[in-house]
Amino acid sequence: xxxxxxxxxxxxxxxxxxxxxxxxxxxxxxxxxxxxxxxxxxxxxxxxxxxxxxxxxxxxxxxxxxxxxxxxxxxxxxxxxxxxxxxxxxxxxxxxxxxxxxxxxxxxxxxxxxxxxxxxxxxxxxxxxxxxxxxxxxxxxxxxxxxxxxxxxxxxxxxxxxxxxxxxxxxxxxxxxxxxxxxxxxxxxxxxxxxxxxxxxxxxxxxxxxxxxxxxxxxxxxxxxxxxxxxxxxxxxxxxxxxxxxxxxxxxxxxxxxxxxxxxxxxxxxxxxxxxxxxxxxxxxxxxxxxxxxxxxxxxxxxxxxxxxxxxxxxxxxxxxxxxxxxxxxxxxxxxxxxxxxxxxxxxxxxxxxxxxxxxxxxxxxxxxxxxxxxxxxxxxxxxxxxxxxxxxxxxxxxxxxxxxxxxxxxxxxxxxxxxxxxxxxxxxxxxxxxxxxxxxxxxxxxxxxxxxxxxxxxxxxxxxxxxxxxxxxxxxxxxxxxxxxxxxxxxxxxxxxxxxxxxxxxxxxxxxxxxxxxxxxxxxxxxxxxxxxxxxxxxxxxxxxxxxxxxxxxxxxxxxxxxxxxxx
Length: 569
Known about the structure:
Distance between the termini: 54 Å
Number of helices: 15
Shape: flat
Order of helices and strands: EHEHHHEEHEHEEHEHHEEHEHHHHHEEEE
Strand content: 5-15%
Number of strands: 15
């Protein structure tokens, strides 16, 4: 089949019409290097040129402006990080967009200042976030230590209340084996949540009972303990493993912590339990330590002396209060910093994405080292060439250059792309056609006929005067107040309704028309006029076939309402 001479299409009238695609021209641009970014920015704002890739054989990593693309990729990554922090901290993002900065001419100095400010604010947010996480970890450690101290003190109080404190119980922390447990510290009124496994007698290995109460003689009972915090869902596993590994020569006591503990390394608060394990001998205690740490437990140093434990508890609670104030101040500082970022975030995102698109486009051009210029080729509508030349002149002025960009129109037999101008009314219908296929250049555009056929075919299936009126009313409100309701286009779930408001309007009008023909309103028959058929007064009961009598007139508009009750409807 001979190739089509696309140059013949240039003989068509250069008028804009939805009936056919625009007459296209292949243009070539010679752009001075210092004007290139301003030129692509101006043409991009107009959206009138489709550039061809003149470096299709060159890898994306070997193109001229790959470093500039990477630069703005990195800036965009920083903006995504700031946006993530803004969402995590519940800061509202301002919808403000600096139109002058986003849509105007941006020089290298403006972009450098923007990058410097973004880097500065990202650095401050990173430092505040890292400090906050470290403070949270310290707060978690102090909070768990407080619960462990309370549990150990409560257990010793319970033991001393039953049989007197054992002499010289050796703790895993400092002061092991020194002194005897004294008065109750933070005694608990309710001990129903405490559970234990094993017995202290077994931990003493049988021959230690005689040593109780003999601290005055200075005898040491080599029964030490370890204490810590573990996730509540692993406490049962800890019980079984300790019991089997130590062969019952241990005593485990634990209590569930009522409030969930916020762990900065986890997304959700975790319920934990405080535990204490008594074992005889260093080897058993070392084995118990390895087992608990392997199950994710956190161990804390607890003194065996009641006085030292009370001092540690008071010191821990004091440090917790101080840390709480520091965390609060850090939150306020981060919130203020992120609020200042949110005011410019949308503007920065828009500028960075535009700059990335500019340098991606520049990577499509050839660089002529002898002329120190970029050579670009692209398709545009022939009618738009004067507007493109005006944009090139503006770009030269913005760059402050005296060397203009040269535009020349090329003669070619290549198949041009399809460009069909649309407006806010025809855009939705054209999108429906393009979803099935784009017509070739010079072919008749089915989008013109779709403006009528699509709503009509919809109305044939959805013919109802009442429902069609509601659709028309809603679509009419979207069309009349489209400027006020333009924010709906930004919402992903509502964008389809707003952009297709004219489609819905026509579908509603056609549905009202077919609903009138169907004589149907809210799925009920309408009786505006007298029916052409009469049903007998005696229906004859259920299951009896009744025939209607034809009258001497017909229903003037649409389907006779009597037909809705007929058996052949």
